[in-house]
Amino acid sequence: MSHTLDIFLDFPQGLEHLIKELELILALKFELISDGTDNWYEFQNSTITLTVGKHDFENDRDIKFEEYPYNLSIRALNISNELDRKKWRDDFASYVVQKLKATERYHLMLVDDLQVKLEEFAPLVKV
Fold first, then answer.
1. What single string gives the DSSP state of each residue in 2-13?
2. Which residue has the higher pLDDT, 106 or 126?
3. Which residue, 31, 42, 61, 63, has most beta carbons within 10 Å?
C-alpha cells in the first residue's frame, strides 16, 4: 500500500452534499465508486488520487479520528521516484488543506500515513 496523507473533516451533512461542496471549492470532479459494500468518491489524474468517504477509524493517542466523520485520502500515482511522489502528495494535500481552511467552515485534521498528526484547524466562528 502506498503512503498517504489524510485530511479528516468534520461535516454535519451527508457525503453527497460534501462532495458538491468539495467540487466547488477545489474545482475538481469526483466519481462515485462502489465495491458492493461501501461507497466513496474519487478524483484521479495522472499523478494524484484523492478519495473521499466515511471512515471507521478509532481514536489513537492524540489522533481523534472519531471527531471527524469524513476522510480525504491523498496519494501519488505513476511516479517512480519516492522523493517526487512525496512532493506531489504533499503539495496536493497542502493545496486541499489551504482551500478548505480559506472557507473558514470546516474542522480539519491532517495525518501522515494514519499515524502522525501533522496539523489541526478549527474555524474561528462555527457556521
1. ---EEEEEE-SS
2. 106
3. 63
| pTM confidence score | 0.92
**Of residues 127, 5, 122, 4, the one with CA closest to residue 68:** 122
Residue 53: phi, psi to the nearest 5?
-170, 180
Cross-strand pairs, 50: 43, 74
Give 71-109 as a DSSP string. Answer: EEEEEE-S--SHHHHHHHHHHHHHHHHHHHHHHT--EEE
105 Cβ contact list (under 8 Å, min separation 6): 123, 127
* Grid cell for residue 78: 505513476
Cell of 58: 478509532
Single-letter residue type at 28: L
User: With 70 as the cut, is the pLDDT of residue 53 above it?
Assistant: yes
